[in-house]
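Box 3.1 A note on notation
Throughout this textbook, protein chains are presented in two layers. The first layer is the amino acid sequence; the second is a token string describing backbone geometry. Keep the layers aligned when reading.
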Amino acid sequence: MARVELDGARMLDEAGFHAECKRAFGFPDSYNNTIDAWVDCLSYLRDADGMSRFRLGPKEVLTVVIVNASAVRAAAPDLLEEVTYCIGGLNERYEDYGEAPALALELK
């Protein structure tokens, strides 16, 4: 199972969130630090599009682990809520295309 770890202590605001995600997911230099770009980069995890360092198999799931989740929850609870919402939406998009959900979220 694929796994990526984000440090919630580095995600205390939107800029920190995007910097941490770019580092951990391997987003391209063209990543423009918006939630729309975040969703775009994670929309094709099973394709060879180069939008992240991950390429999942047909039924493989990428588990997004946020360590120090309490830090981001305290500093930016709306950001954590948006990430949770977007992961759900991304999984719905995968299902709409006849694919298995691709993402799971784990808070530590």
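The helical segments are 14-25, 35-42, 69-75, 77-96. The radius of gyration is 13 Å.
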